[in-house]
Write a structure and sequence with these properties.
heterotrimer, A alpha/beta (321), B alpha/beta (390), C mainly alpha (87), B: 390 residues, alpha/beta, Peroxisomal Thiolase, Chain A, domain 1, ten-stranded mixed beta sheet, three-stranded mixed beta sheet, 12 helices, globular, C: 87 residues, mainly alpha, Non-ribosomal Peptide Synthetase Peptidyl Carrier Protein, Chain A, 4 helices
Chain lengths: 321, 390, 87
């Protein structure tokens, strides 16, 4: 299975900037979203009800379809933990201020979790499979597994994305992650999964695992590698987000000091940041000789342990590997 | 490959378990009544959060009602099942409210105190409400949550079947849960589609929906799994499909394109023709738009041979993400007990279609294949087909 | 009347978040829905809220709503009629 397009809008200059993994550096403390000009992608009448996350998602989707030279995907799958929570908060505020008066419905109707996947289908006039997964830190991995099922069942090209917006008022991310120091950001990443190699560079999506309520971190990683007939030595790079320092030590023991990299330095923290990490991995793999990480990187494992009890694993490889 | 249904559990305004739900429908008693707190017709589950917490002897922590309702139905479905090292068991739930019922409570109680941590709740995210159910059922590993508005429950069931089919899981608890939330009551009211009386699905004079709450869960198993569990299958899940209407964020298309595609493709998946369907549990929310669009799609699929159909939302209210799961349980019961559920409150057929839903509780009918429709915001259309196991 | 129409245009642009549109771009008699400004059924609900919020006028009947909310002129005329009634 191949990844034939990828697109990220984030707090980093990632959008339409192939090779970004060699130029971007760790996030600055007060970083802000780097947005493209949405009017180049979405008409004003369509844009007016869209929240930031929706505009980001639609723009990334269009970018992916262009990269892959597709007019329509055979399925649209989105992973989002918090959905359109800015609109949720708007509507809560409206309920509070309206008392018994009439309520404006717009925030309500665009606040459902599946607004993103639904709006993409609406704009593309796409009637195919349309799904939204919402499993906090594993939302993107769940979406990716669904996309793989679609390809295994015979679909040719599936649009899969991870999207979350920043909303600090109704949900206390810092408390949830038990860390006051985290750098809250937001981001959207979309990909095309295909049953055939693309015209341009494409990467193998070897396997994806989503494990909830785990009790054996290293054990699950080993089992995942074994099921893919791999040993830890064969993994060239591990991009990780860890909830606890001891897990980082376990990764060092498993893979070696030099091979692990904390992706949250690049992505910041939001529930679907493993989608950004996956694009970062793709970008590294796409460069034969990486200016920062050197040559010979052919297999990348994205290891998402943002929440202590949940573990997501995404295994990427160069297509010829 | 066959996907066996070996367990069902349901909680709704008309009963706290599968047996009670069936009995209420047999006696044609609706669960929708005027709520004193909201002055609106609602399908409330007649158990408080405290009662459910006590019932299951749960620890003293902040539970979303989404979790509590899900526990009632999931535990009923799970029954005497045991964990087994040879069976990969997963949980896929679905919800649209998630922990918003708790969030809104604190938000409205202390609107000026937005900086305090008191209302910044950790139950808010949907996935958390599912994980809490997994903890109680002793499940770890594959735990997922679907949120596609009013088709969520049906989609969770479909996901479970797809994962078994591709040999990713052997047994999976699938379903959905949604409590009543002021957020949705105000939201649907703002769309001017809330009926001030009990809803009248498929009736010419229908004015809109009533919200309800509840949960429904099924146990799906592979052939290898039932060899180990020795569970007796109630029926099989033979067909499923999801399609996008791609017409409007909230309204269904006039020609019912998404619904039509989902029904046709579910029939293809089940490898049966439309004449083989003996009963349709329609989405039938009671809104002008849904019932017309769905009727037109049914006409296109079934032509002159429309099987008996009904919406059970006149009993339960529209339970949003739980609806597809609760109605899937009803479909299993239809096959198990060979009966067809009534569409209450119907008197005048729609002028556009003239279609007549089944208005009587009919038992002793031959039911081999049933179709369940679920459609949601964002044009999300899902159809499931359940068939006799033999 | 012209002032009222201009106010209405400004309110519509604000409430419906019509980006890139100025009051001058909206013609008094052009249809608000469909081919004219291109509003949809959700906007119709928003306009009902707008009529109550800014002008204290409740529209509860769908047929009345369709007639009144068809153009800027029809909205302005209805506001004047209703205001005259309540005087």
């Amino acid at each position: 299975m191949y990844i034939t397009a990828s697109s990220t809008i984030s707090h980093q200059p990632t959008f339409r900037n192939k090779g970004f993994s060699s130029t971007i550096s760790a996030l600055e403390p007060l970083s802000e979203l780097v947005t493209p000009d949405y009017s180049a992608f979405i008409q004003a009448m369509e844009r007016r009800r869209m929240s930031q996350v929706l505009k980001m998602a639609i723009t990334c989707s269009i970018d992916c379809l262009e990269q892959a030279g597709l007019s329509q995907p055979d399925g649209i799958i989105v992973g989002t933990s918090m959905g359109c929570c800015v609109h949720t908060k708007n509507f809560l505020d409206k309920i509070l201020s309206a008392n018994e008066g009439l309520l404006s419905p717009t925030s309500f109707i665009v606040s459902t979790h599946n607004t993103i996947a639904g709006q993409i289908s609406l704009l593309l006039k796409n009637h195919s499979y349309n799904m939204t997964h919402t499993q906090n830190s594993l939302s993107f991995e769940q979406a990716l597994i669904d996309g793989m099922l679609c390809i295994e069942n015979g679909s040719s090209h599936i649009l899969v994305g991870g999207a979350d917006e920043e909303e600090d008022e109704i949900y206390n991310m810092k408390e949830r992650l038990n860390d006051e120091k985290i750098h809250l950001t937001c981001g959207v990443s979309f990909f095309i999964l295909s049953n055939e190699k693309g015209k341009q560079a494409s990467i193998n999506l070897v396997d994806v695992g989503s494990f909830g309520l785990i009790n054996d971190f290293s054990g699950i990683i080993m089992e995942f590698l074994v099921s893919n007939k791999l040993s830890p030595e064969e993994i060239d790079m591990v991009l990780y987000a860890n909830s606890e320092q001891e897990k980082t030590e376990e990764l060092k023991t498993l893979f070696g000091h030099g091979k692990i990299f904390d992706y949250q330095k690049i992505t910041g923290t939001y529930f679907t940041n493993s989608a950004f990490a996956m694009n970062y991995g793709i970008d590294i793999l796409s460069q034969r000789e990486h200016p920062v990480f050197g040559e010979g990187i052919n297999k990348v494992l994205v290891c998402n342990n943002l929440i202590p009890e949940n573990l997501g694993l995404i295994l990427l490889a160069n297509k010829n590997d | 490959m066959k996907i066996f249904v070996t367990g069902i559990g349901v909680v709704s305004a008309i009963g706290l378990n599968a047996e009670e739900n069936l009995r209420s429908m047999k006696s044609m008693v609706t669960g929708i009544s005027k709520s004193s707190t909201h002055n609106l017709m609602l399908g409330e589950v007649k158990l408080s959060d405290e009662q459910i917490i006590k019932m299951f002897d749960l620890p003293n922590e902040d539970f979303s009602r989404t979790t509590l309702l899900a526990l009632l139905a999931a535990k009923e479905a799970w029954g005497n099942n045991k964990h087994h090292s040879g069976i990969r068991t997963g949980l896929i739930s679905s919800t649209s409210v998630g922990g918003l019922d708790r969030t809104e409570k604190f938000y409205f109680e202390s609107p000026n105190d937005k900086s305090s941590a008191s209302y910044k709740l950790m139950t808010h995210d949907n996935g958390r409400t599912t994980e809490r159910v997994a903890v109680e059922l002793g499940i770890s590993g594959f735990i997922g949550t679907i949120s596609t508005a009013c088709s969520s429950g049906a989609n969770a069931i479909m996901q479970g079947a797809r994962l078994i089919e591709r040999n990713k899981l052997d047994r999976v608890i699938v379903g959905g849960s949604d409590p009543l939330a002021l957020y949705n009551i105000k939201g649907f009211s703002s769309l001017s589609i809330y009926d001030q009386d009990i809803c009248k699905p498929f009736d010419e004079s229908r004015k809109g929906l009533n919200l309800g709450e509840g949960a429904g869960f099924l146990i799906l198993e592979s052939e290898q799994s039932i060899i180990i569990t020795r569970n007796k299958p109630h029926c099989i899940l033979s067909g499923w499909n999801n399609a996008a209407d791609a017409f409007h964020q909230t309204a269904s298309s006039p020609n019912g394109k998404g619904a039509y595609l989902a029904m046709i493709n579910a029939l293809i998946k089940a490898k049966i023709t439309s004449e083989k369907i003996d009963y349709i549990n329609a989405h039938g929310t009671g809104t002008g738009n849904n019932d017309l669009s769905e009727s037109i799609a049914i006409q296109k699929v079934f032509g002159d041979n429309i099987p008996p159909f009904s919406s059970t939302k006149g009993f339960t209210g529209h339970t949003l993400a739980a609806a597809g799961a609760i109605e899937a349980v009803y479909c299993v019961q239809s096959l198990q007990s060979q009966l067809i559920f009534p569409n209450i409150n119907f008197s005048i057929p729609m002028k556009e279609t003239g279609m007549l839903p089944e208005t009587n509780y009919r038992s002793n009918v031959s039911v081999e294949n049933v179709l369940s429709n679920s459609f949601g915001f964002g044009g999300n259309c899902t159809c499931l087909i359940f068939s006799n196991a033999n | 009347m012209q002032d009222l129409k201009y106010e209405l245009k400004k309110q519509i642009i604000e409430e419906l978040n019509l980006q890139d549109i100025k009051p001058e771009d909206i013609e008094d008699d052009a249809p608000l829905f469909g081919d004219g400004l291109g509003l949809d059924s959700i906007d119709a609900l928003e306009l009902v809220v707008l009529m109550e919020k800014y002008h204290g006028i409740k529209i509860t009947d769908e047929t009345v709503g369709k007639r009144v909310l068809s153009s800027i002129t029809s909205m302005a005329e209805y506001i004047q009629e209703e205001n005259a009634k309540s005087k």
